[in-house]
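Exercise 7. Given the components listed, write out the predicted structure of the assembled complex. Treat all entries as one system.
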Amino acid sequence: MCFDLRNEIENVFEISKKNVICGNGSEELIDVIARNFVGSSDEILISEFGYIQFVLAANRLNARLKKAPEKQYCTDVDALITMINPKTKLIFLANPNNPTGTAIEIDEITRLIKKMPSNIVLVLDLAYGEFVGFDYCKKIHGLVGQYENVVVTRTFSKAFGLAGLRVGWCHAPEAMMSGFYAARGMGSVNAMAQA
Ligand SMILES: *Cc1c(COP(=O)(O)O)cnc(C)c1O
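Answer.
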């Protein structure tokens, strides 16, 4: 359950530990989230040059992956909205994205949330969020409390330089937690990584 680590995340980020699950890198959590909401006849939507793990997660589930064209290597919210259809179950969006390095403003993310059906889960990947800044990250985390279909993933791999230890975390509505724990490896975050 990563009690100590989740306690520290609660202290530092002011996010209740009840809304936090840790994983073997956020990569594991990307998989866990996808497995919770996407079946093999469903679709995952990403931005054209979205992070490679989103593609791999879709492949592992045999799900169909749709890519919304970008504008100058940047997520285009209108293109994403246009590509939503009844089979869309999940949208993965990294801000900043890897490998493009571009990020969209909070207003644009909010616009997407308001226009997309609320049965679609939006995953906001903040693996490089620290490089935009604390305020940006805090605002993105604020969306989790505001909308029941938004989750945020974070990692200690990038700004903290701990990629080799494999530890990331996800901030999500409490209602999603039991499903996430059921889909995650039981001892996936080792003691050294938690420390
Ligand atoms: C590196 C990276 C991750 C995954 O990092 P982990 O080491 O698995 O925590 C997720 N998303 C993006 C955009 C990344 O660049």
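Discussion: The chain has a mean pLDDT of 97. DSSP finds eight helices and seven strands in the chain.
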